[in-house]
Specification:
Elements (H helix, E strand, L loop, with lengths): L3 H6 L4 H11 L10 H12 L14 E5 L6 E6 L9 E6 L2 E5 H4 L10
Antiparallel strand pairs: 1-4, 2-3
Length: 113
Protein backbone atom coordinates (compact mmCIF):
# COMPACT_ATOMS: atom_id res chain seq x y z
CA UNK A 1 0.00 0.00 0.00
CA UNK A 2 1.64 3.27 -1.08
CA UNK A 3 1.89 6.24 1.22
CA UNK A 4 0.73 9.79 0.57
CA UNK A 5 4.36 10.90 0.62
CA UNK A 6 5.18 8.21 -1.95
CA UNK A 7 2.53 9.28 -4.48
CA UNK A 8 3.41 12.95 -3.97
CA UNK A 9 7.04 12.08 -4.71
CA UNK A 10 5.91 10.44 -7.98
CA UNK A 11 4.16 13.57 -9.30
CA UNK A 12 0.78 13.56 -7.58
CA UNK A 13 -0.43 17.05 -6.67
CA UNK A 14 -2.17 17.87 -3.42
CA UNK A 15 -5.15 19.19 -5.39
CA UNK A 16 -5.31 15.98 -7.43
CA UNK A 17 -5.24 13.90 -4.26
CA UNK A 18 -7.96 16.07 -2.73
CA UNK A 19 -10.20 15.64 -5.81
CA UNK A 20 -9.61 11.88 -5.79
CA UNK A 21 -10.70 11.64 -2.16
CA UNK A 22 -13.82 13.72 -2.87
CA UNK A 23 -14.62 11.49 -5.89
CA UNK A 24 -14.73 8.46 -3.59
CA UNK A 25 -17.42 10.08 -1.47
CA UNK A 26 -18.11 9.49 2.19
CA UNK A 27 -19.37 6.01 2.91
CA UNK A 28 -18.90 3.27 5.44
CA UNK A 29 -18.66 0.70 2.70
CA UNK A 30 -15.36 -0.16 1.05
CA UNK A 31 -14.79 1.66 -2.25
CA UNK A 32 -12.23 0.24 -4.66
CA UNK A 33 -10.88 2.63 -7.28
CA UNK A 34 -8.06 1.79 -9.67
CA UNK A 35 -4.74 3.59 -10.00
CA UNK A 36 -5.70 4.80 -13.45
CA UNK A 37 -8.48 6.86 -11.84
CA UNK A 38 -6.19 8.70 -9.40
CA UNK A 39 -3.64 9.51 -12.13
CA UNK A 40 -6.39 10.61 -14.54
CA UNK A 41 -7.70 13.05 -11.93
CA UNK A 42 -4.18 14.33 -11.32
CA UNK A 43 -3.66 14.81 -15.06
CA UNK A 44 -6.78 17.01 -15.21
CA UNK A 45 -5.27 19.20 -12.49
CA UNK A 46 -1.78 19.43 -14.03
CA UNK A 47 -2.65 19.55 -17.75
CA UNK A 48 -3.89 23.16 -18.04
CA UNK A 49 -0.69 24.72 -16.70
CA UNK A 50 2.21 22.24 -17.03
CA UNK A 51 5.06 23.47 -19.25
CA UNK A 52 5.82 21.34 -22.31
CA UNK A 53 9.30 19.97 -23.00
CA UNK A 54 10.57 17.54 -25.60
CA UNK A 55 13.08 14.72 -25.18
CA UNK A 56 14.06 11.60 -27.05
CA UNK A 57 16.32 8.70 -26.08
CA UNK A 58 19.39 7.93 -28.17
CA UNK A 59 18.39 4.28 -28.43
CA UNK A 60 15.67 3.72 -31.03
CA UNK A 61 15.82 7.16 -32.64
CA UNK A 62 15.55 7.60 -36.40
CA UNK A 63 16.68 10.59 -38.50
CA UNK A 64 13.99 12.30 -40.58
CA UNK A 65 14.86 14.74 -43.35
CA UNK A 66 12.52 17.67 -43.93
CA UNK A 67 12.74 19.42 -47.29
CA UNK A 68 12.63 23.20 -47.16
CA UNK A 69 13.43 23.41 -43.44
CA UNK A 70 16.28 25.61 -42.32
CA UNK A 71 18.31 25.46 -39.16
CA UNK A 72 17.15 28.19 -36.79
CA UNK A 73 16.14 28.83 -33.21
CA UNK A 74 12.51 29.72 -32.50
CA UNK A 75 11.09 31.11 -29.29
CA UNK A 76 7.80 29.43 -28.35
CA UNK A 77 5.57 29.27 -25.28
CA UNK A 78 6.26 26.46 -22.79
CA UNK A 79 2.49 25.81 -22.74
CA UNK A 80 0.40 26.55 -25.83
CA UNK A 81 -2.52 27.96 -23.82
CA UNK A 82 -0.78 29.43 -20.76
CA UNK A 83 1.60 32.32 -21.44
CA UNK A 84 2.47 32.63 -17.72
CA UNK A 85 4.79 29.61 -17.97
CA UNK A 86 7.21 31.62 -20.06
CA UNK A 87 9.06 30.78 -23.24
CA UNK A 88 11.65 28.27 -24.43
CA UNK A 89 13.99 27.97 -27.40
CA UNK A 90 13.17 25.28 -29.96
CA UNK A 91 15.56 24.43 -32.77
CA UNK A 92 14.33 23.54 -36.24
CA UNK A 93 16.54 21.88 -38.85
CA UNK A 94 16.37 19.87 -42.07
CA UNK A 95 17.40 16.76 -40.09
CA UNK A 96 15.51 15.86 -36.90
CA UNK A 97 15.36 12.71 -34.82
CA UNK A 98 12.14 10.95 -33.83
CA UNK A 99 11.32 7.59 -32.27
CA UNK A 100 11.25 4.63 -34.64
CA UNK A 101 7.61 3.84 -33.77
CA UNK A 102 6.60 7.39 -34.73
CA UNK A 103 8.61 7.22 -37.96
CA UNK A 104 6.58 4.21 -39.09
CA UNK A 105 3.39 6.30 -38.97
CA UNK A 106 4.70 9.23 -41.03
CA UNK A 107 2.95 10.22 -44.24
CA UNK A 108 4.01 12.74 -46.89
CA UNK A 109 2.55 16.28 -46.57
CA UNK A 110 1.08 15.66 -43.10
CA UNK A 111 1.73 18.20 -40.35
CA UNK A 112 3.35 16.67 -37.27
CA UNK A 113 4.54 18.27 -34.07
Amino acid sequence: MPTVRGVLRRGMTVEGLRQFIIAQGSSRSVVNMGWDKIWAINKQVVEPTAPRYTAIEKEGRVPVFISGAKEEALTVQKHPKDEKNGYKTVWTAPKVFIEAADAEMLNVNVLIT
